[in-house]
Amino acid sequence: MRGQRSATLDDVARAAGVSRATASRVVTGQGPASARARDRVATAVAELGYVPDAAARALASRSGTRLAIAVIGRTAAVLGDPYVGRVLTTAAHIAAEREVGVSLHWVPLNAPVTLAGLAGSRGLGGLVVVNPTRPALETVPRALRGRVAAIGVGTRDVPSFDVDNRTGTDGVVRHLVSTGRRRIAMVTGPSWLPCGDRAVEAYRRVMQDCGSETRVVAGDFTAARGVTAAAEIMSRWPDTDAVFALSDLTALGVLDGLHALGVQVPADVAVAGFDDIAFACLSRPALTTSTHPVEEIAAAAARAVLDHDGRDPVTFFPSRLVVRESA
Amino acid sequence: MRGQRSATLDDVARAAGVSRATASRVVTGQGPASARARDRVATAVAELGYVPDAAARALASRSGTRLAIAVIGRTAAVLGDPYVGRVLTTAAHIAAEREVGVSLHWVPLNAPVTLAGLAGSRGLGGLVVVNPTRPALETVPRALRGRVAAIGVGTRDVPSFDVDNRTGTDGVVRHLVSTGRRRIAMVTGPSWLPCGDRAVEAYRRVMQDCGSETRVVAGDFTAARGVTAAAEIMSRWPDTDAVFALSDLTALGVLDGLHALGVQVPADVAVAGFDDIAFACLSRPALTTSTHPVEEIAAAAARAVLDHDGRDPVTFFPSRLVVRESA
DNA sequence: TATTGCCGTGGAAGCGCTTCCACGTGTGGG
DNA sequence: CCCACACGTGGAAGCGCTTCCACGGCAATA
Predict the structure, then answer these.
(1) Enclosing domain of residue A224
(2) Please, is A239 exposed, middle or buried when counting C-beta atoms within 10 Å of its C-beta (0-12, 13-18, 19+)?
(3) Would B4 be classed as within a structural domain?
(4) How many CB atoms sit inside 10 A of residue B75's CB?
(5) Are A252 and A155 contacting, i.e. CB atoms less than 8 angstroms apart?
(6) Nucleotide with the nearest C1' to B62 CA
(7) Do residues B176 and B274 share a domain?
(8) Is residue A60 in a domain?
(9) Which of A6, A320, B115, B131 would suit a FRET pair with A254, their CA atoms being 20 to 30 Å apart?
(10) pLDDT digits (tens, 9 = 90+) for A57-79
(11) Total structural domains in chain A?
């Protein structure tokens, strides 16, 4: 068992009988190196169990070797959300392809911890901000601009990637109308997330087209809120015949809340969600919803920051209606 | 608008009219500094928008400022699993308390990418390995030993934290027995995860105690597997009157598969899961299960590596039976 | 007034790595 | 046979930061 100190590149170079410069070239695979040198260094690396120091490497090469994901949100709940899990999974994949690490940051809303501190910019290859708010985005250090992308919100400040929840909502609500529903309530997302506005707008338009009043209650994308929202809606508008929630989690909660109220779904009230999460097809009745290609979106964002390409400011990914039993 | 290069500590020192050493002391808050110096440096920092470079800091101070979470698993699915999301949430919190970052790594089973490469040890304050396999654990660089903890598996190699799924399973299966079930099938976890062994053992013991045969099929903690497992069980042992799955996700899938087969739950077959995930109470019928204090476990593991305390090698957290409608 | 002690400070030495540059070598063409 | 040109190599200069150490100035003590 060797001493405490872990092996450095100098140790490797010495063991291999070459200079540190040569050892570095071999280890990184950059620059010329004779077969002989390559061999000896490789042997030494294996023998000493050498692992390059990420910090030193980042410092010397002044290049990013890390993809940071910052999740903005009011509570810890956001990280428990399957949505974030899918984003992280995807990011981890893209990062693995590029051989960069992923760092994860949870930024509370109205955070004293800003994205600036988070970044510690050297060694940061790119930053993907999930559900950014404008103030949060403004704390991104200047040096990083151009290596930042947003997902979950369409903003023009940085390249953004999001699902097209305008047409998605349109599709769902029209489906409800086409099955004879007219008194349709909507549970939105949290008010600090502007992405819901486009959806609400789409909903209003359809309601207007068929001469119905709008029934909007604020949500927060959680299942718990769905339960209370169901009660709220049925007490404010007892003749409601359909509920559309901008999140499957919430829709599932609505299903539960309605069940507790003794309301039959879809016989009495139809329920539809948005996202098409894995559980959507496991609920009873199975949830009608609209897809949300989270993986595609996250991959696009991760690639955008890592490749540093100057893309269109906002990209919307299409959402597709999935009709199951609940509506 | 200042030049491209972001401000360094030298810039701050110059602007404040002090030496770099003093500036460093003020910024880190370590070491003596006069009120005057503190003031001037603080002003300069604010003015220049200075952000310390994490890499350089880690390199110079040779101290860890990052908590790494490595998730071991066969497919990307593991990261989509709510379990991992909860672990990450918790880790992010603990890390935020300690003012360290979190990095996330997905390590495929039989990974060419080992935990060694992941670590790039400098700047790593600790490593929590989720669902470690012994080979994976062996790739952890020596320098890191003592700053590594495992969760999701009880291993003696490093401090480990896991739910006590032996007594948890015992509780669930005895509950099934107490409600008159005798022909109970079990869907296990993935075979590469040794943690399931203790659970299977507990199940076998109860079955033996009441003179029933064991009916075990291998699972993988996914809902999809639950659907196929239900079909498999009902065709192999048509008289089965209860199914216990070691994961709620799988149990939910079993519910779905049984429904497709026209089997009534719990009338014909009782179903129970393990984990008590959020969706457990949203399914119809609501799922009977046993708790899994993921947050507590993850917090304990994160604290253990960050505080570098020499705790007991294996800690099991108790699981509590939650009876709902499905069993 | 001379001596001891302490505190705030700046100089300088690295942390482990990448990369520029200059320096031999060995090859091909003139 | 000599010059040009590659190519592989080692020396050395940093990357931005922390921290050791020695130094000067001040107040407290003799």
Answers:
(1) 165-290
(2) exposed
(3) no
(4) 13
(5) no
(6) C15
(7) yes
(8) no
(9) A320
(10) 888 887 777 788 888 876 656 55
(11) 3
